[in-house]
Structure formats: structure tokens, C-alpha cells
Specification:
Strand content: 5-15%
Number of helices: 3
Structural class: alpha/beta
Shape: elongated
Order of helices and strands: HEEHEEEHE
Oligomer: single chain
CATH architecture of one domain: Ribosomal Protein L15, Chain: K, domain 2
Number of strands: 6
Distance between the termini: 65 Å
């Protein structure tokens, strides 16, 4: 089979119905639109959202708040739980570069927040942009230290 021999399956394509081309074509005179009225006229049917006196569908819905309502100053953080820090050696320093190398950050350009889910048994020195109160308590209870970096 060659490229120029390809063609669609039989019946997959239908030719356009040519209406208003005389009585012999089967769709002459009124062209299948009936007689008189708004639906017969050219450009008929009213506007796209017109629903015959009903409240239009798009006006029945509540306002959809999109991009313009997202605060431009919002900061998205990489979330790292305390239990994920258990994989590092005791006494090591944990910062953004170390977490990125370990594959714990979804987007490296975003700042890091340490969350308090899980337990920590190793002494670690954590230097990140943000730490929750619970996470800070668990890190310090294990003998480690927390430093907030900008």
C-alpha cells in the first residue's frame, strides 16, 4: 500500500446536502425549513445564549473566579515532612540543595517548608525557608537545630 492509495472506509464520509437547488434535488423550494417564521429566515435562531424568555444558562451559574482572583503575592512551598528527614545521616546539615539532590522537592525554585508529620530520631541541622511549630519541636527534641533562611 502506498500513501496515495489511502482512502477512508466506505460510508465514513458523506457529501454535504445541497438544499434549495430545485425540485429534482428533493430539498428544493423551502429547503427543508418549513414555511414562514423565524426559523426560516436567514441567520435565524436568535442569539447563541437566548433561551426563549428563560434566564440564560450562563447567567444561572455563579461567578467563576479565575486567574484574576488568585493573589499575585501568593507563595507556593515545597512541602517536606519530618519523617522524610529520617533518611539523612545524623549530624548532617539539611538545606534546599540537599533536599533537591535527594529528590524530595517537586519544584526546586520554590521555597521549602518542613511539616510536622511523622517522627524524627536523628540529630539534624535544618536550614530552610519555613518550619511549622510542630516540626520545629520534633527536630529540637531529637537534639537538632532549626534555622530560618531567606
Amino acid at each position: 500500500m502506498k500513501l496515495h492509495e489511502l482512502q477512508p472506509n466506505f460510508g465514513a464520509k458523506r457529501s454535504k446536502k445541497r438544499v434549495g437547488r430545485g425540485p429534482g434535488a428533493g430539498q428544493g423550494k423551502t429547503a427543508g425549513k418549513g414555511t414562514k417564521g423565524q426559523s426560516v429566515r436567514q441567520g435565524a435562531g436568535g442569539k447563541l445564549y437566548r433561551q426563549g424568555g428563560n434566564l440564560p444558562f450562563f447567567r444561572r451559574l455563579p461567578f467563576m473566579r479565575g486567574e484574576g482572583f488568585t493573589p499575585p503575592s501568593r507563595v507556593e512551598y515545597n512541602e517536606v515532612n519530618v519523617e522524610m528527614l529520617e533518611r539523612f545521616d545524623a549530624g548532617s546539615e539539611i538545606n534546599t540543595e540537599v533536599l533537591a539532590a535527594a529528590g524530595l522537592l517537586s519544584k526546586k525554585s520554590n521555597p521549602v517548608v518542613i511539616l510536622g508529620n511523622g517522627e524524627l530520631t536523628k540529630k539534624l541541622n535544618v536550614k530552610v525557608q519555613r518550619v511549622t511549630k510542630g516540626a520545629k519541636a520534633k527536630i529540637e527534641a531529637a537534639g537538632g537545630s532549626v534555622e530560618i533562611v531567606d
